[in-house]
Write a structure and sequence with these properties.
- This protein has 213 residues and is α+β, with helices and mostly antiparallel strands.
- The chain has two domains: 2-95, 2-Layer Sandwich (TATA-Binding Protein), CATH 3.30.310; 115-210, no CATH class.
- The protein contains nine helices and six strands, in the order βαββββαβααααααα.
- A six-stranded antiparallel β-sheet has the order 2-3-4-5-1-6.
- α3 crosses α7.
Amino acid sequence: MKIEYIIKKEDDFCNSVERFKNLLSTNSRITFENSKIKFSNVALDYSIKTEKIQNKKERIFQLIFISNESDESRSVKHLEKIDKLFKRIIKKSGIKFNLNTIWDEVSQYYCKSCYPRINEIENLMRKLIFRFMIKNIGSDWVKKSFPQKLKENVEKIAEKNKVEGLLENSLYEADFIQLIEFIFIPYPKNRDINKLFEMINAAEKLGDLEKVK
């Protein structure tokens, strides 16, 4: 697992790999030993490269921190710590750096971990919205109660992709953000829909949404 950065600077300070390492070492928690960067009893692999941008007084550094722990959660913990420490050093260095994170496998880890839960919530939201609308408004709920803004967006997508029936299948096609809009964009005045909102707002856990029928 790794995090990779591109750091750009415009002056003559810190203009080599060795000087960049010296900058990081100004924090007493960081030391370099052989091919490792060490901090807080943790050792990570690293790579630092630099090159000057042609025809400009600019230099870029490519920095990579790598954790080879077999336990991904430990790698995440270590990389989060070095990321926070590194950015703190850069911020306090007094040197004008332009720092960009260009590869972040910690964020990828969290995305992969969270998606199944988000997908479960999406499906529950589709289920409760559809069942409630069918039961309380009828099969023509799309025509009667569909938010105008969302309706226009869906119709544009359908026209662009030459797809029929997209509006009727809009709950299936909708992503998490659009499902939120289903709930919070103002609907035409309808007491049954207001009741749905009250039930959703009262839910304290996912299991409570299953009870909304």
